[in-house]
Design a protein that fits this description.
By secondary structure, the chain is α+β, with helices and mostly antiparallel strands. The protein has one domain (about 5-275). Helices cover about 25% and strands about 20% of the residues. The chain is built from ten helices and eleven strands. The protein has helices spanning about 5-10, 60, 65-70, 75-80, 85-90, 90-105, 140-155, 180-185, 215, 230-235, and strands spanning about 25, 45, 110-115, 120-125, 165-170, 185-195, 200-205, 225-230, 250-255, 260, 270-275. It has a seven-stranded mixed sheet.
Length: about 280
């Protein structure tokens, strides 16, 4: 199958990380930061969201499998007991994506282990943005999909470089204290969308002073797999006190072919700040 230029751009390099409410270390093998460092609360986690894990595996490219995933609890028995998700998890890229989904959705200390063809794979929780998804009988509703999607998209890195970022949003789990805000003052972009939709949406908007998105898009916005919809000032609600933009909207074409701002906001808008 031939990929579009935007998809090809994303397939070049995607690197990701998870955070609690603070800046996150992208390199799992890097030494822990000194206690006096402004990012001393950083959580070092495995980052293996590889080039095609987000866009071309069965968990997201197949609408039936995506529905099977989100309509059931994020638990081992639900995943292995559903033929679609059980088969999808034979794909290493699908397992990689599921690690990031689980890390965004489930709280630290929770998670699950799934057996695939005799091998066991663990999917630990980190952030807890959709904790009820992991409960017995749970499912991922619209709000869950929005927050988990924003969380995953915020970790895109065009070159896969190991950097620290601060992730912030309109959730208690994403609050940044004064020390973190001082250490990470440069607002990069806000990420939002729905990676589980039949036609996935990978969106970002830029702060007023920005015209590029090098970390996620590389040298060109035109070929970026993440759709940069415009300025966050025009697409989101007023920024929070920590500088994060809430309730951002994408752009769609109307019947006349003109791009217009969507009416429905994305509550799961996650803003990235850099050192």
């Amino acid at each position: 199958m031939e990929h579009s230029p935007k998809l090809a751009a994303l397939l070049l390099a995607i690197a990701a990380l998870f955070a609690s409410a603070c800046a996150v270390e992208l390199d799992p093998d890097a030494p822990a930061e000194d206690a006096g460092d402004a990012a001393s609360n950083a959580a070092r986690t495995a980052n293996a969201l590889t080039s095609n894990a987000l866009t071309s595996n069965a968990l997201t490219s197949n609408a039936l499998t995506s529905k099977a995933l989100t309509s059931n609890a994020l638990r081992a028995e639900a995943l292995s007991g559903n033929p679609r998700t059980a088969d999808a998890l034979r794909d290493p890229a699908a397992r990689t994506l599921l690690k990031y989904v689980a890390g965004c959705a489930l709280p630290a200390g929770e998670g699950f282990t799934v057996a695939v063809d005799g091998d066991e794979f663990s999917f630990p929780g980190e952030l807890g943005l959709a904790a009820s998804w992991g409960e017995e009988g749970g499912a991922c509703d619209e709000a869950c999909r929005s927050w988990v999607s924003g969380c995953v998209l915020a970790r895109v890195n065009y070159l896969g470089h190991k950097v620290n970022i601060s992730v912030r949003g309109d959730r208690e789990e994403l609050q940044a204290d004064k020390v973190e805000r001082a250490a990470y003052p440069r607002r990069e972009a806000t990420y939002y969308g729905d990676i589980f939709a039949p036609l996935p949406r990978y969106n970002a908007c830029l702060p007023p002073e920005a015209s590029s998105l090098a970390r996620a898009c590389g040298p060109s916005l035109e070929t970026c797999a993440i759709k940069v919809a415009g300025s966050c000032d025009s697409l989101c609600d007023e920024p929070n006190s920590d500088g994060s933009f809430p309730n951002c909207r994408g752009k769609v074409r109307n019947s006349s072919g003109k791009l217009i701002v969507e009416k429905t906001p994305n509550p799961g808008s996650v803003t990235v700040f850099l050192r």
